[in-house]
Every structure is written in structure tokens, then in C-alpha cells.
Design a protein that fits this description.
Protein name: Spore germination protein KB
Distance between the termini: 21 Å
Largest sheet: 2 strands, parallel
Number of helices: 14
GO cellular component, one term: membrane
Number of strands: 4
Organism: Desulfonispora thiosulfatigenes DSM 11270
CATH architecture: Up-down Bundle
Keywords: Germination, Membrane, Transmembrane, Transmembrane helix, Transport
Family: Belongs to the amino acid-polyamine-organocation (APC) superfamily. Spore germination protein (SGP) (TC 2.A.3.9) family.
Strand order of the largest sheet: 1-2
């Protein structure tokens, strides 16, 4: 398979956009109530060991992606089984993400348009970019990564007058257990989800440490998520946020400064769509690369559109409505992800530590 090379800076910005996308309409760790912002901080402490594991896997086998590392560590037969597990994981995940964006567009903007149309347009755009290679997506992210942060700063300033500090006080009002539950939710998504980039990254233009890529992107994305969570809690409060399908979208709708700055929820939607475009593209890329490796094809590009059609088919009936989507992602996903984003990387790291000496 042809190697695709991106710079360290491009890799960092890809991870940032991937991480902040889904948080642009939901409030991370909302199960912690008023302490959701504390749950975000705890989650970032929890995820640090996993980030070091992801980076170490790369460091053990420079110029190799996860699929190649798995074959080196486990041999051809066992690696095929692991590849099948990863392929299912990414197939279900990208379908889950795609339907989220299809539902959002339908609910907030195009209620009379079937959501499958919204999903199809976004999926085709992602495939079109990936046909040009990961370098094109990386260059695109290098420019557009600043937009969500500019929007976040603008929303923060415009919403100051409608913030209420009592919405986050008192701290630990319900004890520490809700904080840990909320932290586990944030830990599962989006933080450990960046494991998927071990399948994407192999070669960089400079031989910088993989630790820098993961830790820098985690820090920047973490600051964004923390500020975003605080703004939503300060404006909406725990009860209002829990009662809404898209709390962040409704939070921005409340902004009205002198009847000049109002109805700016389109900006929040822009952040969400930009992040979603990157997230769906990365997951489609990983899925295509996994199938390519499984069947020993030379290139993944010819698989993009057939796989996209399969994903679109699953996504079209995965959830009946937004409530079903939120129930699964709030109650089931935090446990569903464990074998793929925590247990599997730990096993791969353990075997790679043994195999790397023989490989070198």
C-alpha cells in the first residue's frame, strides 16, 4: 500500500478537529450535572496513560500504521481475526457518527428532507476528499481548524450577560460518583477515540516524536472542551441542558445582544459540521484501509464508495430518532468502547514491546 506523508502540525490539527467536532452540540459529561466541567478535567487525567500507550505503539514501529503493526506482532492468521474486529468497530462507529449528523441537519435545518439525503451528501463529500489522499484532508484541516476556536471565543464573549454562576455551584453537590460517571463518559468519547489515528498515521515529513502529536492535540482539544462545557452550564444550567436534544445549539439561540447579534446558531452548526466532516472522513479511511489490509489489496481508494454505500445503509436504520441515539451513546457506548479503545491497545502495546527487538 502506498505510504501517505503528512507533517506533525497537520497531524495535530486533524486530531483536534476530530476531537472537538461532536462536542459542538452536546455537553460532555452531562451526567455529572453541575459538575460536568469537573468531569472533563478528571477525564483528561484518566486518559493520559492511554495517550502514552497510543504514542508508544507508534514509537515502537516507526513508519508503520496499526494494521502493519498488528501483523508484525501477531502473525498473519491472528492478525486477520483482529482486523475483522477492528473493521466491525469502525463500520458501526462511522455509521453511528453519520446518522448523528444526518439527524442534526434534519432537526435543525431541513425537517422535510429525508435524513438519508443529508447523510449521503456528507458521505460523498468525505469520499471525494479521501480519493485525493490523506494529504488533502490534512491540508484542509490545517486551515479550517481555527474556525471552531474563533466561534468559541465569539460565543463566550456574547453570552457573558446571560451566564449564571449559580448553575455550577455548589461543587460536588451530589457527591463524587456522578463526577466519575461523567468523566468515564468523556473518557470514552471523544478522548480515547483518538486511538483511531494509530490506523491513519505512519509516515511524517519530520521524524518528530509521536508523543508530541498526541499530547499537544489532547491539550488543545481539552481546553476547547472544558471552556465549551462551562459556557453551556453557565448559560443553560443542568436541568435545561438535560432536557434538550441539542443543548449547545439551543444555548447559542439564547444569545441576543442589542438585537444585533442574534440567531447565530448557524455558527455552532458550522463547528459541528466541520468536525463531523473530518471525523467521518477519518473513520471511512480507517475502514477502507482495514479492508484493504485484510484482503491484501494494493490501494484503498477504489473501496471508498462501495464501503460508503454499506455505511449509509446501516446508518439509515440504526436509530429511529435523536432520543434513541442519545440513549445508546450515553448509556451503552461508554462500555461498548472498552474492548476496542482500551483493552486492545494495551494488548498490542504489550506484544509490540516484545516484538520490536526482533523487528529491529
Amino acid at each position: 500500500m502506498q505510504k501517505e506523508v503528512i507533517s506533525t502540525e497537520q497531524a495535530i490539527k486533524l486530531i483536534i478537529l476530530f476531537s472537538v467536532g461532536s462536542t459542538s452540540i452536546f455537553v460532555p459529561g452531562l451526567s455529572a450535572g453541575k459538575d460536568s466541567w469537573l468531569a472533563v478535567i478528571v477525564a483528561f487525567v484518566m486518559v493520559l496513560p492511554m495517550i502514552m500507550i497510543f504514542a508508544r505503539i507508534h514509537a515502537n514501529f516507526p513508519s508503520k500504521d496499526l494494521f502493519e503493526i498488528i501483523e508484525i506482532c501477531f502473525g498473519k492468521f491472528i492478525s486477520k481475526i483482529i482486523l475483522l474486529i477492528i473493521i466491525w468497530y469502525t463500520f458501526f462507529w462511522v455509521s453511528d457518527v453519520l446518522i448523528n449528523y444526518g439527524q442534526y441537519i434534519q432537526v435543525t435545518s431541513l425537517p422535510k428532507t429525508p435524513r438519508v439525503i443529508n447523510m449521503a451528501i456528507l458521505a460523498v463529500l468525505c469520499c471525494w476528499v479521501l480519493k485525493q489522499g490523506i494529504e488533502s484532508l490534512a491540508r484542509w484541516s490545517y486551515i479550517f481548524v481555527y474556525i471552531p476556536f474563533v466561534i468559541l471565543v465569539g460565543i463566550s464573549l456574547l453570552s457573558i450577560t446571560i451566564m449564571d454562576v449559580s448553575n455550577i455551584l455548589p461543587i460536588f453537590n451530589n457527591g463524587y460518583k456522578p463526577v466519575l460517571k461523567g468523566a468515564f463518559s468523556v473518557f470514552s468519547q471523544p478522548l480515547t477515540q483518538i486511538f483511531v489515528f494509530t490506523m491513519v498515521f505512519s509516515d511524517f515529513r519530520k521524524s518528530n516524536s509521536s508523543y508530541r502529536i498526541y499530547l499537544t492535540s489532547l491539550l488543545i482539544a481539552g481546553i476547547y472542551i472544558l471552556i465549551f462545557t462551562l459556557i453551556n452550564l453557565l448559560v443553560l444550567g443542568e436541568d435545561a441542558a438535560n432536557s434538550m436534544s441539542y443543548p449547545a445549539y439551543n444555548m447559542v439561540r439564547r444569545i441576543d445582544v442589542a438585537q444585533i447579534f442574534q440567531r447565530i446558531e448557524i455558527l455552532e452548526s458550522l463547528s459541528f459540521i466541520l468536525g463531523g466532516f473530518v471525523k467521518i472522513s477519518i473513520l471511512l479511511l480507517c475502514l477502507s484501509k482495514g479492508v484493504t489490509k485484510l484482503f491484501n489489496f494494493k490501494d484503498y481508494r477504489f473501496l471508498l464508495f462501495p464501503i460508503m454505500l454499506l455505511v449509509l445503509n446501516l446508518a439509515s436504520f440504526l436509530y429511529e430518532d435523536v432520543i434513541s441515539y442519545k440513549d445508546f451513546n450515553n448509556e451503552i457506548w461508554p462500555y461498548y468502547f472498552l474492548p476496542f479503545q482500551v483493552i486492545l491497545p494495551i494488548i498490542i502495546l504489550g506484544v509490540s514491546e516484545i516484538k520490536k527487538k526482533k523487528f529491529k
